[in-house]
Amino acid sequence: MKETRRPRDNGCNSMKLRPFALERFFARHEFSARYLMCSSDPETMSLRELLELEPGSRERLENLRLGYTDSRGGDELRHAIGSLYATADADRILVHSGAQEAIFAFMNAAVRAGDHVIVQFPCYQSHYSIAEALGADVTRWHGDLADEGAPDVEELERLVRPATRGIVLTSPNNPTGYPLDRAQMDAVVALARRYGLWLFADEVYRGSEREAERLAPASDLYERGVSLGGLSKAYGLAGLRVGWISTGDRTLIAAMASLKDYSTICGGAPDELLAAVALRHGDTLIERVRQIAAENLDRLDEFFARRSTLFEWKRPRAGTTAFPRYRAGSSEAFCAQLVAEAGVLLLPSTVFDAGDERFRIGYGRANLPKALGALEAFLDSRSPIPAAGGL
Question: pTM for the whole thing?
Fold first, then answer.
């Protein structure tokens, strides 16, 4: 067995992290743009609406003592999270302050200089930038963007090296919305088991599948599987800042818990109480997001059919984001002009290190019809675009 089960001696003070392109982009525009048409998090709800789902929860919140919480996550919350997995074992859960902290802790616990990591691509930048900053070599397992973003499972084994320590997946994917199917997931698990690799699966969109099967979590399928979950995406509760990992590897949990002592130490007591309430009503929250997304996708299908000479569109089968192609030149220039002139924010593919001809669109928010109207008005004000055959 490869040596990957002890904490890594990778002090954060020696890391040279690349600027996080997506987050720096949002820092410039997120709170000034009129319409955030690229958001990966869907429509949220008010505190009142959440508390109304469970009688007595408001009184519990008002009487909550605002002290420290268990660094692992409180028993109530870990049991609520554990119920999402086959074992329902709270001791397999480690709670974090959002999914980003969990990604950071996993990479620092499992990866060291000289290791090799395979990362499904495109993806959230921390999936590869943290490993690179630790001195690991990262190979991007590219999805076929002309085919929904589907990766080639047969290619994956050719990417494995003697120094490979792990595979990082995102399913359903952000930004493409591509969900791995059962055969693909089985093949990835079999390969990871054969080589003794970590399988870190970002599953924050799990539950958002509409026209695809909802697969079992990686941590239920494989003894070295690590499932990343959180409330920001499928549940629509980004403001609670609650994420977690589920894994049967207790040594990894201990290593990540030790690293957490140097970051947040523990979660906020109100966040944890509200997160437990949310998860007990998780099916209701997920269905609410799915309904908004499905209605918005129908609108997007109509929009992109009208604008087929300008955009290439494939309807995503899961998640709340898609990655259309812009046929008329630089997506970065297009997105910059759009937000400057119309106040509509789309995310160019350059911030994903994925070229300059696509953009991420988010369709989980209730104001998408208004944003789409502003986008249409902007396009109507521009010079006609030549037919697709002439591009």
Answer: 0.93
